[in-house]
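Interim report to the steering committee. The following record documents the input for UNC93-like protein MFSD11 (440 residues).
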Amino acid sequence: MEQRLVCVIILGFGFMLLFTAFQTMGNIEQTVINSIKIDDPTFQGDGYTSLAVIYALLSISNWLTPSVLSKIGPKIAMLIGALTYCFFILTFLWPQTWLLYVASAILGAGAALIWTGQGMYLSKCSDESTISRNSGIFWAMLQMSMFCGNLLVFFLFQGKTHIDNDTRTLVFSILAGLAIIGIVFLGALRKPNQSNLALDDEILDRQQGPKQAFINAARLFFTKRMLQLSVTFIYTGLALSFFSGVYGASIGFTKAIGESAKQLVGLNGVFIGVGEVLGGVFFGLLGKRTAKWGRDPIVIAGFILHIISFVLIFMNIPDAAPFGDTDEVAFIKPPIAAIAILCSFLLGLGDACFNTQIYSMLGGVFARNSAEAFSIFKFTQSVAAAISFVYSSHLGLRVQLGILLVFGILGTVTFCFVEWAVKQSRTMNSNECETVDTKK
């Protein structure tokens, strides 16, 4: 097995374990916080607000991360970021309102480091012929994190309408332990063997100072292609906040589903993970073939899957479900648990279609500016996610689905425009080379 592929797999294991902890936290945070408030009326924290703080700080910090990475490199950046995730989880063992928001802010800054570092490291492990494969493998391994943590929640929350303190302590302790093991894997990462071109890029990265890294990121952001892609990034941020924080909680708050409603919060996360992993495995194993087809058919397929899920959610889950326990019903009476979980799978599979192709685009087309490109991606996505978590506390489920539909259409169209422009540019360059060879 080639050494660079080994690096991708170790990176995937580290993120899988770390995000087994965090993605499970994000899925159950609002449900757990509601239970904490019942046990301790002095606790006034809010899960949606916490997630909004995380993504707001993440968006701001992303403008600084290229400068930081130019000094410390991607591995150290990922390790520092991983420690902030572990700290956030541990704070739930001693729930305090002020500590929740402080830890959320720290995590937001750390998340910018870990994700930009990850994008830069993955780019250095890849070239144009392997970036689709490596992106798919990494994405599949990352999203396997949805299985273990949420299966744990599924069994521990079984039959519970209130998540008691002992159950919360057990869940958070296990998740913190998994996060620490993930940090160990990230610490074992090695410098990948690179081609001469990649080595030249690395030398350029070292010579580039923090100020120049920031200037380059700003310049890249205002290029035509990146501005168009930013619309796609916004949609992925809105979709991320919906399926990672809002939808699972909405299922758990829908009393008409039955006594299993709270238990389905964990199962929701599992089936989102099933969709994410299947998408990652498919595009990883078929990376060379999908590269021939192009990225646009995959993104279009992902959006069609999301449209189907939005319609089913609209029919099945009541409008007031994001706000707390409700006796309301939607158009399907009573709501069907199997349809709710099917939508979880479709949301995950559609998200994998978008994200694997975005990673492929940024790691391939913007390989020379990988740190800046991934920081812009995470900045734009995080701003959208933060805004979404803010309005999630005020807007009903149907309005939220309408917003997702509009931005999904725009994001899919703009991604296709960029992909078609890239294909046209490659065709023109190929034709120019053939003309030169003919003259020779």
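Confidence is low (pLDDT under 50) at residues 195-207. The committee is asked to note this result when reviewing the revised timeline.
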